[in-house]
Amino acid sequence: MSSNDGIQIPSRLPLLLTDEGVLLPGSTMRISVDTPRNMQLVKSRLLKGTSLKSTIIGVIPNTKDPEHDNQELPSLHSIGTAGLAVQVVGSNWPKPHYTLLITGLCRFRVAQMLKERPFVVAEVEQLDKLEQYTEGQELDGELGELAQRFYQDAVQLVGMLDMSVPVVAKLRRLLDSLPRETLPDVLASMIRTSNKEKLQVLDAVDLEERFKRALPLLTRQIEGLKLLQKTRKPRPDDDKRVLVVRKGGVFPGHQFSLDEEGEDEDGDDMAVLDKKVKEAGMPEHALRVCLKELKRLKKMPQSMPEYALTRSYVELMVELPWNKSTTDCLDIRAARVLLDNDHYAMEKLKKRVLEYLAVRQLKSALKGPILCFVGPPGVGKTSVGRSIARTLGREFHRIALGGVCDQSDIRGHRRTYVGSMPGRIINGLKTVGVNNPVFLLDEVDKLGKSLQGDPAAALLEVLDPEQNHSFTDHYLNVSFDLSQVLFIATANTTATIPPALLDRMEVLQVPGYTQEEKVEIAHRHLIPHQLEQHGLTPQQLQIPHHTTLDIITKYTREAGVRSLERKIGAICRAVAVKVAEGHKSPKVEQPSVDESLRESEMAAPPEMPIVIDPMALKDILGPPLFEMEVSERLTLPGVAIGLAWTPLGGEIMFVEASRMEGEGQLTLTGQLGDVMKESAHLAISWLRSNAKKYQLTNLTGGPDPLEGTDIHLHFPAGAVTKDGPSAGVTIVTCLASLFSGRLVRSDVAMTGEITLRGLVLPVGGIKDKVLAAHRAGLRRVILPKRNEKDLEEIPAPVRAELDFVAASSLSDVLNAAFDGGFPITTNPLPHPHVTSKL
What we know:
protease, alpha/beta, five-stranded mixed β-barrel, peroxisome, 19% strand
């Protein structure tokens, strides 16, 4: 293709029809190819060609709508540009297409059309006789004067730009190195011109004519720039940055593009990004990776799919708070006041936060603790996390983990995947903009597991104080220090949290509220909030304390206060209707006699404030949802009350037993688990072995309770699955009542695990269970002796209203559960472990 005489192009060229612009010799242009003819040309010649000759194609401006490419070929422009395809990039989005980077070589004229399908091929005649322009040869005569004038104008135009920009300085050096005869084509492709004007330069085969056509375009650009500088307000370096300089490509020299936009769109943008990278304060290992990606980005054309991915990565690195942090508020007194104002009770949580602040005063480089608040819904676990952030003066970010089953949500996706993004931890740090926020990992006990990995396992590194100083996100692929982040996890139960994850967290139990605490919370927080939400004032609505207590006991049964807040909201809506009806709209005209009579017959507006009494409460909320049914259900032998723990708090649980003639079979119903079934068999065995001692008989009065008798044990709420060992003492008491024919005391509830020898073993959830018994109006609670230590967590008002019996054996349980002891004695002695009003 190339010889000593100059550049020679093939006599037969495939033609690329384009409507995106005009390619001039010496310039580089990106062309999008998506029509059938052009796509076939790329596939057949450029992708399959093996020689340099196969990459030379003819580029001719297309005067036809490319959407109708399948119709007959129109008459082509007679002159085109032979170009070298230096890059081919394919993509399927939004539709299949190729992007070509083509450098113009020389002009040609179409001599004869050889074929039109599958792509256009023509016989061409080369027009630019480049061999006559040898190095060092000077143009003379009128042509030399035109060339010199054109060169001077080009130097003037470039001199008006900011020479501190590297691409502008390179353009200035390029003007001195290029042969003068190539300047019209190069400058015409750089300055702002229409396609029609570029076609005129392309059609100028004669060099002198080419200078004459390009010179007015260059002069117009200079004059337009001068006028723009006069009309715009002067700013520092404004006269140097009025034109855009975009690097376009290189072959055989360099080619640039100038535009009157006022800024350097690409080069300046990269300079700003480079400045941000250096000012981000990254550690050395992260800065090294970021600079490497930025260097790749500068060399990458914007049309490449990887450009957007790399730029997004660099911008994420810049936006992360590598060294930005907030200063903690270490005033312990102010923190205590703020926590008390935001939340009533929760003394254990407040104490832990104040301890953290105290240690921070003594040691500033303290790693953030990793806390886990465990408790039923509605007790304020999430809101207390927000209050902790406000107390410390830190940013707060909540990450909901309920239902998350992909470990990439935590650690991010690798950048090799389409649609990859960082994990929630890194994304949260980007959102808050500091490296020491308070992160609330909500519902950590509801993490799932799938084929995409185990997110609970991914959290192990995040929540390990010994590892999270170098947490590595898959997308970021560099370590980030999480040691200053205060992580707070919330959960309803620890049963579903993997042991390894639970071991990394400091668990703080958040039990349910007592009735007195709920009343106080309602009047401190819930009622004022609902009044504000419904546009009411305390002068319009008042809810007395005894009404609030009725709502708590008769219309809600929960460990938290969410249902209580909804009931208060229902009262506010009902009162809002009354208040709205009391406001009469102003009337413009005088009412008639009939209207006056009708208004006088209407009810008078309600007196303010509206006080909610028990009658009004029933009218608004309806009949009570929960009545005290304990005494009614204990009217027959064979019924006892147990205490159960659920993720929603403690609950009372009835156990019912009946017997009938049969073959000694035991039937268990109520969705029981294996552990509870085994507890029932243990209870039967222990009672049979001690039947004579406790005077237990069967239906015929025989000494064996199961002889000729079938036993049916039922746990009501049959649709709810139940399991656990703590119902053992309740089952024994229920069956003892059945076999002896005696009633269990109606104010007693119990919990505890049993053994075959009649021992009572400790169980968990004592505080929640005791609060459930207190809510139900019970007065005596039987619990294992080894659980006496857990009574310290019970609020003092609740302990004062309950009698606790600490039982070490089933004999103690039966003596406390029946009036007069078990079996009946003439002078029953008080149980040695009864503690009254603890």
